[in-house]
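Record passed on underneath.
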Amino acid sequence: MTDNLKEMMEKARAAQKIVEFWPQDKVDEMILAVGWECYKRETAEKAARMAVDETGLGVYEDKVVKHMKKTLGVVRDLQGVKTVGVIEDDPKLGLKKIAKPVGVIGAITPMTNSSSTMPCNGLPILKTRNAVIFAPHPKAKNTCEFICNEMRKGLKKVGAPEDLVQNIKEPSMEASQDLMGMVDLVLATGGAGVVKVAYSSGKPAYGVGAGNATIIVDESANLEETAVKIHKGKVFDNATSCSAENNVIIHESIFDALLAGLKGQGGYLVTGEDRAKLKQAMWPDGSHLSGKIVCKSVKVIAAEAGISVPDGTTFLMVLGEHIGPEDMFSAEKLSPVVTLWKYQDFDKAVQMVIEITAFSGYGHSCGIHSTNEAHIMELATKAKVSRMMVRQSQSYGNSGDWVNGMPFTMTLGCGTWGGNITSENVTWKHFLNVTWVSYPIPAVIPDPEVLFAEHFKKYGK
């Protein structure tokens, strides 16, 4: 625990006390002010440039789009949401629910999505009248500082205490750990290491799991549209998103046609000796991704692997050989590289999704390109994932998109499968305490003869 963090906590608690009983309209005014400062194109462009320059990850143009879209989506999702006073009233049950803030939240943010994560976390935290202290990845501290200052501008504009938003200026794992031990709730968006620390902090925590989005394409899919969507989801921001397509399982009757479609989108199939070279470059020790290829361009990855790819290549493809550690191409790749698999029977495809995600990305997500509702529901019923996209780009859809109903966020819970407490997209409702107020109602006592009637009929008393 450092004196600096103690001071930050004191400021945060004082600021949070000021807004604790603010009315809804004043809270909403604050959200619009902070949201606008984050959303503005000049903010997004500067943040994107800083993020690419200091982390070396992703694509500037894509980061601008991502920052603006996610910020606007979060503001839209928060509009009209009641987070003050009575948020639910059920006269029949005599119940009222009163929304109350958590207090001070420590938000650990990653280097992969260093600018867009902050408004996605910060706006719902403010909407619920909490204060937030951001602890960024050390390689993303300048981007964090910039966005925090923009958020504070919005707070100041409407007379809200600026210390509702603060950030650690010289981040480290030690500083993050100290912060976690001081706040009321931890929100950890990042790698497995920081999530594990969050869950060991002794404080309530929301964490995320690793991604490894695995997609089925069946015979009913529109192959032209599917190729476009897979390409978009795979290459966006050099696959900085944990939701990017990692494995595509294709019915054998359409495999060649879809492969041709993916090649038409800039995909290049890496085979033979080059596949082995690519694997060695990506997992030099056989199990851990190399930082030299994570979220890098195809050009950088090919050079690192010592392989040649045609001009115009936008992503690399390999054929899956085995599921599990003997073939790491079945794991999350965090790069514009996708693994293609072939299946004959749909139940086998579902089983492959189960096995691949159990090995890597347990609980995160899967998808399907199909118009066969029976296939869609079979995968949805059997796959152990928290979200499943139907006929969508995975990395666009998982965390909220204009063309689906998923809540906008950058923090994706993976359920108990992924070692998380929630399987939802983390948003405003996760930053509230709720008091249940119970009034007396006329007694509702069941008749055991009626309640157990079906059991008695079949098995007797």
